[in-house]
Structure formats: C-alpha cells, structure tokens
Amino acid sequence: MLKIEILYYVKNYILLIAILILAICFFIPISSNGQLKWVNVDADFQPLPPNFHVYKTENRFNGKPFIAYYAKAKLKDKEIDFTTDTTFKRRLTPLEFYNKNAKPLLVVNGTFFSFATNQNLNIVIKGGKLLSYNVHSVPLKGKDTFQFKHPLGSAIGIDKKGNADIAWLYTDSASAYAYASQTEMIPLKDSIPTHALDYYLKSSAIDNHLQAVVMKKWHMATAIGGGPVLVQNSQIKVTNNEELKFIGNAINDKHPRTSMGYTKDGWLIIMAIQGRFPGIAEGATLTEESQFLVELGCVEALNLDGGGSSCMLINGKETIKPSDKIGQRPVPAVFIINKK
After folding, report:
1. CA distance 190 to 144
2. Which of 27, 45, 67, 223 has CB 3.0 to 4.6 Å from 281, enough for a Cys bridge?
3. Where in the chain are the domains?
4. Can you tell me whether residue 230 is helix, strand or coil?
C-alpha cells in the first residue's frame, strides 16, 4: 500500500514538473516578443533641459539579447534648437562633431555616404540651406547593365515653427530647394545617369498608387536624409522597394540601427540600437526597428545609416557602443540638438 502511495506522488510530481516546463517554454517567448520595456536614464546624462529625456532598454527581444536607447525632444520648445552639420571631402567621428559644434546636447549619425569619396548620398539642410543632395541614379547590373534606376530618397525635416515632416525628395544643385512628394514612388528606369526635375515629373505623372504626383518645394530649416521610410500614418510601412537602399533579404538582417521619427503630440524621437555583439546585443531588422517606433507613438519615421556608423552622443557621452573595432566611425554628416 505504501509503495502504491509513493508511486502516486512521484507520478504527480513528475506531471507537475512537466507542466511547469511547458509553461516556461510557452510563456517566455510570448513575453520576449512583446513591447520593449524602456527605463528613463536621464540621471546618466545630466544636465538635460525639461523637455528632453533619454530612455534605455536591455530586455530580450525575440529571444535574443537586445540593447537600445532613444531620446525624445519637444519639437516646439523654444529652449531647444535642431540643426545639422556636415563636412566637405572628409569625415569626422560624432565626438569630433560634438567638439566642433561647442558641445551640443545631442549628436547622432545620419546620412549614408561613399567610403571612397566621403560624399553624402542624402540630403542635408542647415539653416534653410541645401548643403548636400540626394544621389538619384543607381546603376543596374546583369542584363540591365548600362541602365539606371532613379529613386527618390527620403528625409526628415523640421521647419521654423517646429513642425516635422518625412518626405521623398528630388534635389538638384541648380535649385535652392528640395522638391518633396508625400507619397513613395516606383523609381524610374532608363539609360540616363542624371536627369532634371522636369524630366522626372514628366516621366512620373502617375505614381504606384495611381495618383497624380505632386512635388512641392520643401521649406525646411533643418533636414537630414537616410532611408528607407519605416512608418507612415502610425503604421509599419517600409519603402525599401521604392528607395533601393538594401538589396534582396538584407532588410531582414539584424544590425545596429539609427532612426528618427515624430509623434502626434509633437515629440521628436531619435533611436539608436546596438548590434553586432553576439550574446550581448544582436541588433534589429528594419521591420523590428519600425515596430519599436510605432510602439513609441511615431506618426512617421525613417531609417538612417546604421551598422558601424550608428552612434548617439548625449552631452558627449555615448549611449550604444559602436560596433566598429576602432570605436566611433567617422561620418560626413550628423543631426544635432542644442540647448539655447
């Protein structure tokens, strides 16, 4: 009788352990796939103005180790100034930009660039002036050799009144302004490496949504380009096919990321995701990056240059750890926030 009772309890104990193991296996992935838990870390970066805050997360995402920071700044706060800085035929580290610009509140990398020429490949606007232009011609390969595609690059801009906007832009050194479309467009394909604005408009009378293309002058005080756009109308919508930033399945690879967006209630969001540190910080895909920005309330957001370029300084102090072995990678342009 005693043996039967012992066997009964042993069986129940084994069953209980099995249930617990199943529960752990089932619930842990659910919690790790949920929203990130952000912790305010303002104390680590003081002094900060009242309408500027810094957040960090270190909780796992999709079962992988994850580290990211984001800063938020009130767009219409008169005590905060938004600007950019760029170089000519050279690159500087974010820390060098920080020292060059009288130690601003925030410095973050922005544009894609050419390693060979140190040239920005995206727009930069400072004080309302175009300092750098989008590169619109992408050479094709294989059977399409000697053919080009002409995508519109995306950028985030802030006007004099503190209103933010993300748009797809045509730029030309012959024009003092960028021309903006609020709708993504299928890139033109032809055998002409460069083309004028009127050619672009005549060739693109209808966009991929069967709507008439409307290109207007983009009156921004500050802007920096990158791409692709990640969020539109508060929903994930990655426009890599239109902007041709990443080839094939590269958008699904995990890397360090830099991105910017803005919320309906007037906050600018700047995010930096650490990556390429196996077992410590794996990075994120473009879709995951988009998800984080939507969860933070971004109405629109876009990706900026990532990988070894990703770096965000607050009061000169690094947030994420850059993935390059040498530390901060020199870049040709940065976005800056100053305390007035």
Report:
1. 10
2. 67
3. 1-32, 36-339
4. strand
